[in-house]
């Protein structure tokens, strides 16, 4: 059985980490049996979550993990995709994970004391208060450095959020009139899209990108559809 190492659940969504949501959603899509080990990333491979343990191996990075799972089990939800659909999926994945994700991280880790308080409480829950404060401060410095290294963290907030709004607008257009990113059936890229979007729409961190996304019915309905299909035990997401 696969052991999934990830943060504790929060906010009535699968996880406060976009990539933990992505990986757990994929495991459910592919009907792979797993167990959860709640942890923090301080001693994790590559220093981040999620990671898995399987057959005595520790494997990190959701992209590498999913590739491993496809080799060991099956292609899961992607086994019937055409070459064109696989190309489209890769393009959407890059927009989601290499751009919109970083705009969301900008909101959580780099702007406003209230956003940071909410994020810190969800990520570092379970630690004693004094330890949580020190660990969170160190981790925040690391994440802010990564956001700056990406480039989005070097921009004024208004410019960063405008770029994120453009991503959200493209996703809203793509999902208008169809259930999933590639059509009527979910694919692996939907695990990524749900992970990013549910953490934008149902996370109590405020941002202009979130406000714009909440006004797009295609996106809220998509997240509701994904959550009720793959995480029915959590109920409907609470947006806002």
From TrEMBL:
Gene3D superfamilies listed in its UniProt record: 1.20.1050.10, Glutaredoxin
One Pfam short name: GST_N_4
UniProt GO cellular component terms: cytoplasm
Highest taxon above the source species: Bacteria
InterPro entries: FAX/IsoI-like (IPR026928), Glutathione-S-Trfase_C_sf (IPR036282), Glutathione_S-Trfase (IPR040079), Glutathione_S-Trfase_N (IPR004045), Metaxin_GST (IPR033468), Mito_Protein_Transport_Metaxin (IPR050931), Thioredoxin-like_fold (IPR012336), Thioredoxin-like_sf (IPR036249)
Gene source species: Methylomonas koyamae
Official protein name in the record: Glutathione S-transferase
PANTHER family in the record: FAILED AXON CONNECTIONS-RELATED, METAXIN RELATED
Signal peptide boundaries: none
């Amino acid at each position: 059985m696969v052991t999934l190492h990830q943060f504790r659940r929060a906010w009535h969504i699968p996880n406060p980490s976009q990539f933990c949501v992505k990986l757990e959603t994929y495991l459910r899509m592919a009907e792979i049996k797993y167990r959860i080990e709640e942890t923090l990333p301080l001693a994790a491979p590559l220093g981040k979550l999620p990671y898995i343990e399987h057959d005595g191996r520790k494997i990190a990075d959701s992209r590498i993990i999913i590739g491993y799972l496809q080799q060991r089990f099956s292609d899961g939800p992607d086994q019937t995709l055409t070459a064109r659909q696989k190309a489209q999926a890769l393009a959407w994945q890059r927009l989601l994970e290499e751009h919109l994700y970083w705009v969301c991280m900008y909101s959580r880790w780099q702007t406003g004391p209230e956003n940071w308080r909410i994020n810190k409480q969800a990520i570092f829950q379970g630690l004693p208060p004094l330890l949580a404060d020190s660990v969170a401060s160190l981790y925040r410095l690391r994440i802010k450095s990564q956001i700056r290294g990406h480039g989005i963290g070097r921009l004024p907030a208004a410019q960063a959020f405008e770029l994120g709004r453009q991503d959200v607008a493209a996703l809203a257009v793509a999902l208008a009139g169809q259930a999933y990113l590639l059509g009527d059936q979910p694919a692996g890229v939907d695990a990524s899209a749900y992970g990013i979007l549910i953490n934008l729409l149902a996370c109590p961190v405020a941002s202009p990108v979130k406000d714009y996304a909440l006004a797009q019915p295609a996106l809220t309905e998509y997240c509701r559809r994904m959550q009720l299909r793959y995480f029915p035990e959590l109920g409907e997401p609470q947006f806002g």
